[in-house]
Design a protein that fits this description.
The complex is a heterodimer. By secondary structure, chain A is mostly beta strands. Chain A is 0% helix and 48% strand. Chain B is mainly β. Classes of the chains: A mainly beta, B mainly beta. At the A-B interface, β5, β9 and β10 of A face β4, β5, β9 and β10 of B.
Chain lengths: 115, 108
């Protein structure tokens, strides 16, 4: 079955450490997204990519980095510069919009906590 | 920037009841999405609509573009419907603006 796989489900980070969250999709989607979810808040966009080797900052990109070397993969690195990384992270993908509206398909998320 | 407001924030119902969740937005949009987030955290897209009404099983979504308002209805609610329901809007680009969600609990 086609879908989005995020790993790990739970992740713990020590102070000053970088960690990378994995997101893989086999839906043949061009566009991929990373969102952060905090209690009592709506999802916020961190980074998105519409095509391989290209990505754009979202609303809260500071302290995060991404790469898009393959169509299927869009890993997110939470760097030590992100001072409040504890959150639930969701990856999504969609057919490339090209200005039209497309539904987004979501993974099951990764919960990141600070040790 | 579009503001998306959902009501109520929390909703508790008895099995079999008719449920309505509301979503209002501040700026014109090209599409509105209803999403369901399971207790484990995964999100499923329920509807994407830009006008009128859509129905899937016991779920019905409506939108009034002039009033900038959408509703999600669940008929004959069941405990398995317990989840967080999220409204999101897009202006024709890949960026979505999300509401904070409505937590629904359906008791047997």
């Amino acid at each position: 079955d086609g879908g989005i796989t995020q790993s790990p489900k739970y992740l713990f980070r020590k102070e000053g450490q970088n960690v990378t969250l994995s997101c893989e999709q086999n839906l043949n989607h061009d566009a991929m997204y990373w969102y952060r979810q905090d209690p009592g808040q709506g999802l916020r966009l961190i980074y998105y990519s519409q095509i391989v080797n290209d990505f754009q900052k979202g609303d809260i990109a500071e302290g995060y980095s991404v790469s898009r070397e393959k169509k299927e993969s869009f890993p997110l690195t939470v760097t030590s510069a992100q001072k409040n990384p504890t959150a639930f992270y969701l990856c999504a993908s969609s057919v490339r919009t090209g200005g039209s509206n497309q539904p987004q398909h979501f993974g099951d998320g990764t919960r990141l906590s600070i040790l | 920037k579009n503001e998306v407001e959902q009501s109520p924030q929390n909703l508790t119902a008895q099995e079999g009841e008719f449920i309505t969740i509301n979503c209002s937005y501040s700026v014109g949009i090209s599409a509105l999405h209803w999403l369901q987030q399971h207790p484990g955290g995964g999100i499923v897209s329920l509807f994407m609509l830009s006008s009128g009404k859509k129905k899937h099983g016991r779920l019905i979504a409506t939108i009034n573009i002039q009033e900038k308002h959408s509703s999600l209805h669940i008929t004959a609610s069941h405990p398995r419907d317990s989840a967080v329901y999220i409204c999101a809007v897009s202006g024709g680009s890949e960026k979505l603006v999300f509401g904070k969600g409505t937590k629904l609990t359906v008791n047997p």
